[in-house]
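It is worth pausing here to work through a concrete case rather than discussing structure prediction in the abstract. The textbook approach is simple: state the sequence, then state the predicted structure, then interpret. We follow exactly that order.
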Amino acid sequence: MQLNLNKFFTYLEIEKNYSSHTILNYRIDLEEFAKFIDKTPIEAIEYPDLRRFLAQLKGRNLKPRSLARKLSSLRSFLKFLQREGVIKTNPAKLLVTPKLDKPLPHFMSEEESVQLIEAPQSGKINSLRDKAIFEVLYSTGIRVSELVGLNVDDVDFFGNIIKVMGKGKKERMVPIGDQALKILKEYLDSRKIDNKFIFVNKGGTRLGDRSVRNIINKYILEQAMSQHVTPHMFRHSFATHLLDHGADLRSVQELLGHVNLSTTQIYTHLTTEKLKKVYDQSHPRA
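Step two, the predicted structure:
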């Protein structure tokens, strides 16, 4: 079993270009399954064995999303084994994944976005860096992992484009606004550390995801903002505000780097809610 698992993880890393975080989740899920089947040969696993594993998971009162992820990991693993000729049929084909309700993403209003972006005050240590972080996140809609991975050479200051490494190690080019570029250049020109990383701590090493979260939390407290803001909310706000101002869904999909349009469509629910609110407030027969 372990040999097959190692082959699968290598396949995810080399052929599928999955991130180390995603592979870790697969490893946790599948090693749990390996422990459940114990010494049963992988070739002998049948649908009833999977049903018993599913029953055990349900008995732990896992959230539907966690349960769906574990089933997805198992299904992918067995599909890989069938492709490799280790098993003749995939018993996971008959498993039914629990239906998930897609929660609507939380986002900031345009006023809240401006308030947070303007919060870092000039003259304070790292204020230019923090302001540049907020400007870039809101101007581009990139993920925080993409933000902290940026190098100086990834920014085209003349073409208003940045190159980001997205999910699955896929590169994409993203437009960036003049205001964000202006603050970014001010920050890079003012810092004493000279290396290829854009966003760094006082030691000159890259900022991590958690550091960006802490920076946001610091200004949320300073501004006494009632809403809990995460780095990803800049991304949600970016997409929602674009759609509010007339951007088409396909363009927003490309800007966000979504593979499937269905992933982007969740933002249309937010804009629909806004339209309904305007209708209720404005129409005499509403």
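Step three, interpretation. Strands lie at 155-156, 161-165, 171-175. The mean pLDDT is 87.
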